[in-house]
Amino acid sequence: xVIDVLLSRRLTDVSALRGYALAxxxxxxxxxxxxxxxxxxxxxxxxxxSRARVRLVLAGLPRPxxxxxxxxxxxxxxxxxxxxxxxxxxxxxxxxxxxxxxxFHADRRRLNQLVGGDWIILHLTAKRxxxxxxxxxxxxxxxxxxxxxxxxxxxxxxxxxx
Length: 162
What we know:
46% of the residues lie in helices and 19% in strands. It is α+β, with helices and mostly antiparallel strands. A four-stranded mixed sheet has the order 1-2-3-4, sandwiched between helices. The two termini are 14 Å apart.
């Protein structure tokens, strides 16, 4: 999560962090740092989004795109927290700001437009992240499979950092 913040604020980049880790080969912690760099992403807007993304990847799912913008003929429709655009599947992390009725209304309205555009939107809450993440992973996996995703077990689910 800290690495995500450093990347999003452009205080460093993935190649510099990867180089830093590789320059310490043989020292304590270099492998863990390299793994953390490979899991990092620029787009997360909250620590919980970062945690969700990392845990989804560690569960064997393909790496989602962060803050994916959906448009319709050049008109902005929505920006999704985590998305697999090739499969039109997305995860929206519902944080505490959903206590604001106006924000909640605006979000649901834009997400309804996506459902009409053939997207599957799955909602993740803090409680679900804490208490039933395995169940949520199963739902994401099922949604991706329903759209043609075939798990490539034995290969890395990693993609370059966003």
